Each structure stands twice: as C-alpha cells, then as structure tokens.
Amino acid sequence: MSTIKSGGSKSTSKVLKAAAANTIIESEKNTYVRHINIYLADDPFLKQFLPIDPATNDLFELAKDGVLLCKLINIAVPGTIDERAINTKKVLNLWERNENHTLGLNSAKAIGCTVVNIGTQDLVEGRKRMMLSCLLVQLQIQLLADLNLKKTPQLIEVLEDGNGDIEELMGLSPEKVLLRWMNYHLKKGGYEKTITNFYSDLKDGKAYAYLLNVLAPEFCNPLTLDTSDPTERATLVLDHAEKMGCKRYLNPQDIVEGSSNLNLAFVAQIFHQRNGLSVDGKKLSFAERMTDDVQLSRDERCFRLWMNSLGIDTYINNLFEDVRNGWVLLEVLDKVAPGSVNWKHATKPPIRFPFRKVENCNQVVMIGEMLRFSIVNLGGHDFVEGNKKLIVAFLWQLMRYNMLQVLKSLRARSRGKEITDSYIMTWANRKVKSTGRSRQIESFKDRSLSSGLFFLELLSSVEPRVVNWNLVTKGESDEEKRLNATYIISVARKIGCSIFLLPDDIMEVNQKMMLTLTASIMCWCLQNAPDETESEAGNGYNSAYTSDTSPPASTVGEDESSLLCAEIPSLNIESPLPCDEFPSVNIESSSPGAEISSLNIERSLPSAEEIPSLNIESSSSGAEIPSSNIDDATSDITASSPQFEKGYSPVENGDALV
Q1: Which residue, among 422, 365, 421, 354, has the nearest Cα to 390 in the 3D structure?
Q2: pTM over 0.85, yes/no
Q3: What is the largest CA-CA distance in the chain?
Q4: What is the CATH number of the domain that holds 354?
C-alpha cells in the first residue's frame, strides 16, 4: 500500500530538497576526506587510520574520539593545541573522548570559529551535519588565513580601479576580499559580469575559465570557453587548475550544482597557488606600513575572539574597523547585559549618515556609564574615529564585567554580593593551598606566574587527573616557560574553559589575561563543584570579601590591596561533630582596617556544653572579639612549590600521574 498522499506537491518538494541536501553532504564529505588524507598522511598517530575511503562512513567513526578534530585545528592554525594534552590511544573511554572534543571546540573558538549549538555529545555520537560543520569552518579558516593585508600586503593592488579605499578593504571579511580579488582579475581578463557569490554566479564555469586564463595562460585550453556543456567546461577548469598545482577538492558536478562551500574552498586554493598580484616596491611598502598600523595586539585579538564567541549576529573580522559604527558593540552589550540596549534608538548597518554612527556609539557610552565603567574622556566620537587605546580600554571593562557577572550567577550563596579581582586571587591561592602546596601569588602581576607552575597547580587542584606532571618543566628558561604555558592553555580548554590568551601572555604576565585565565578556571570549578568552592576549598568558613557596590573597579595594573580595608560581615563555622570538643580556631589577619561584625559558630552540641577553645587575634581597632587569627591567603606567600624544592619529582603531595 502506497504511503504517498495525493496532491502532495509540498511533500514532493521536501523530498527533493532533502535529496539535494544529502547530495551536498556526501560531496562535502568526500572533499574533507581528501583534505584529511593529504594533510594528515604523515601524522604519527592518525597515519595508522589513513587513507580514509570516501565511499564509507569511516570519517565519522574516526572523528568520534576527538583526536581528528584537534589535529585539524593545528593544521588550520599551527600551534593552537599542545598535542601533549590530547588523549591519544587506540581505544578511549567516554571521559577521554569528551575531553578531546571539549579541547577541540574551545580551541576552535580560539581560532575564530563560530561554534553555536554544537556540543561534545553531538561529536561523540558522530552526528554527520555537526561534524561536517566543524570540518568546514576549520578548512575555511586554513584556506582564508592569508586573505588580509597583514599576511598579503599585495592585496592593496585590487584597489587600483578606484573601487573602495584601504579602510574599506581592511573591514571586509576574508570571503568578500576573495570576491574582490576574483573580480579584479576577471575585469582584467575581459569578463563582463561581477561575481557576487560562490554558487549561482559560478555554475556555468565561465568565470573560472577567465580567471585561470589570466593567472596561468600557459595552461589555457580554447575548448574551455568554446564548449556549451557546463559539466565539460567544469572538467576542463579542474584540469587547468590541477596543472597549476591546485589540489582537487571538488568534482565537476560540485561546480555545476553550485556548492557554495566547495566553490569557496576552490577559489581560495587558486589564490594560494597563484594570486597574480604585483610585488611593486612602492605599493608593497605602503601596504606594509598600513598593516603595521592596524596589526592587532594580543589583547585586541582576545577581545575580537571573545566577542565572536558570544554568538552575536555580526561576525567581527577587523576589531577597530567593525566597532566604529557602534552596532556590533550594542549587540555585545545586549548579550552581556540583556535589556540594556534601546534598539528603537539604534541604526543597523549599512549606515549612510555619520551622525547615526555617533548616535549608536553614544548609546554604547551611556550603557557603559550605567554599568559603572570608568569612561573618563570617552565619547561616542572616539569609537567612530577608531581611537584604539580607548576602544581597548572599554572592551576590557566589558569583558571583565561579563566574567564577574557569570561568576556571581554561579555562586548560590553570594546573596547579591559582587565578586572582585582580589576575591578571585584569594580563591585561587586557597584552592592551591588546600592541596598541600605552598605556592601563592600576591597579585595578577606576580612575576612568578611566568613559570606557569601556579596555574598548573591550580588546574590540578580543581581536576587532579587533568595534569600530567611528567610533562611539566621547572619553568626556569624561556623554553621551559613556553612549554608550560602552551600546556596550561590546552589543559584549561580541555576541562572546559573558554579562553583566548596566548603562551606569551603567561610568559610576560599580562595582568588582564592572568585574571581572565584564573576566573575561567574558577568558573569551571563553581559549575562542577559548587559546594567545595563555597566553603573556600575546604577551609571551613565562608569568606565574604566583596562590597555592595556594583561593579567594583578593576584592580588590574594596580596593587591588589582591596582586602586591607574590606568589611567582613559574618563568619560562620559549622561543625558536624555531635559530641567532641570544638577544636581551636586560629584566624590571622593582615587587614588592619578590617572589622568583624559577627562570629557565628554552629554545632550539634548539647546546649549547656561549652566550647573550650576559640582564640581570635585581630589588629582591627573596632573589633571587640578577643583572640583571633584570620589567615589571609594574600599574606602567606612562599616562593616555590614543594615539587621543586629538593629535586623535581612528578609525584608529590598526592599528585596522580595521568
């Protein structure tokens, strides 16, 4: 009995669309398989599984353990992942697979991939569409990496026809730069149409024929343009490209059917193989000076990647150019502080009139004031004019605000209190100390952080199995520091931290990045062990170092002294022992101005029983509590960890080797 309903034109349409979609997926899969077989053929671990047969589903089976994802990220942007952090065995358990996929997804964000609605479970289960999406983005990032003035200053030549200016070119996405480059050569070759996309405009293959004839006339075949069969023309185009040295990533049918992703990859391949641009000394010198002026610092790179990771509608390609109309900043503010943006008073790009840009940017400044950012001498016109110093200062406060709000939301017992930079540092010191180690930091500019050992001890304290101490160096030379720094970043991403710093940030002790790294680890710990973190890593008391002001000013770049005069509203000590005597409690304080307003001790003792010994010593002039020692984590600092005091040993203080 037939199950097809009569008059089902809509059903027929859906079936045809589904069939077309499946055809595209199969075609893209074949392309990615060829890419993997070429670039990972000599990989020490994966070569045992290669080459992959494109006619099978071996690609999806191989990708399930996460190793392939991590390896491809390092192909796209070498050095992104420390391969020592990848779990590589023939058979991985579910935990190890999840770790690899978590490392891969967080690293993908760090190279500019937009990872939205894709989780580790999707990849572990081998969901085809999700996997192909990940593979596609990585392939595009690899192929489009050089499509900017910094990497290819010769691109300034595409402006010769007076079509746009250099600021506009810097603000274009790599895909649009590729289209601009293609149209520049097509115009030189006499092609009359303008290519606006990578699908319908390329279906007949004529644009490819003209482009290749301009770039490599020595391989020109007159039949390419003479034939009336699009499939035959596409075949001749691919033959021409192969003679130029281009790898065959697609087949003639992909061109005829207008596969956007595969056509984009093919054009990018042609660009890499032979871009046909001039190396004129004067032009090149001017372009190099321009790229030096706009080269993003590490902080700027971090902000761009962080903003893109929020899932905003606008993708940021060039930080300083893309924020000038104010729209993308409003999108970020709406993510960080929902409801703060008045969209009725905002103008969406493209914006013709400059005063509309100023209006957008003025609203950005107004919201910054509402969030209590330090915005002295900052106006909307500073964003429009591209004042880099002020833009970076504002974005740091925005990123920090978001980070502290996330931490606050995770603290079940914060009671509305704000989390400060000093609180994060104190938490980290206590977390490390709770494992029996003595390494402590005084601030986020503490030079001892450059060795990386404190962060490795912190990571080990929140997840003991994640650090392999056999791989850790003493962090004395620059080479040892770099090895530790790269390992720290990959291990942090492996447990689930979304971070955007570079090894140099740790080696040079970039204070802002040290704060964000520590806060990310704290955030993960609060998500996975809230009870433990609430009790301050087993110290047995609740420490409320935060004030009621919102939000506090950042202390990065200043002395971390906010604890010295903080008021401690309450100190609760709970003992589960029903009958034993309450042991002595020593609380030492280096905070001369601190006041302890109340001290509550709860235990299930009989009401008449005395608590024998509670000694509190305080230098607080206003406190009337006799004998207290409050042990402030910032005042107990030891220069080295027990692991390296008398010869290095990978196993100490209960550390487990992974």
Answers
A1: 365
A2: no
A3: 105
A4: 1.10.418.10
